[in-house]
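User: I'm writing a tutorial on reading structure tokens. Could you give me a worked example: one chain, its sequence, then its tokens, then a sentence or two explaining what the tokens reveal?
Assistant: Sure. Here is the example chain.
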Amino acid sequence: MEDSEFHKFFVDELKDIYWAEKHLSKALPKMKKAATSPELAAAFDKHAVETESHIDTLEQIFSLLDEKAVAKKCDAMAGLLEEANGIIEETEEGTMIRDAGLILAAQKVEHYEIATYGTLKVFAENMGHTDVADLLSQTLENEKATDVALTEIAEGFVNQDAAAE
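And here are its predicted structure tokens:
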């Protein structure tokens, strides 16, 4: 299976999400600093720690597959992070509008990650990489939980406060 085109494609996509996670880990502290509400800042801080564990998990997956952990530029994540920077630049500091925008940007990232990890998990299962699929499943569940937490912050007060500004 390691010589198949599907396996090579799978590894290439792992390299893509590896790049994405590494760059997200650099972007989250900036997003935390830009956040207005302590709740959103704490969510970004928590996800920064989780993102480091996702990087470690991907390195473990590369090892299980006897592959070198190499990052390949992820154009999708690069664009999403560029968009997040644009939101920071285009919104006023200290506003809930900025927080609403940051949540939007973060949820776009989460949805990209959810789609990627979900698909990679199924790929791993189809190639008989049960151990890899289990690790990808854990990361997938963590990404889903982050998305739910962001929704709770948005619906809890950020969106309503932003609308009132």
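What the tokens reveal: The chain has a mean pLDDT of 97. The two ends are 57 Å apart (CA to CA).
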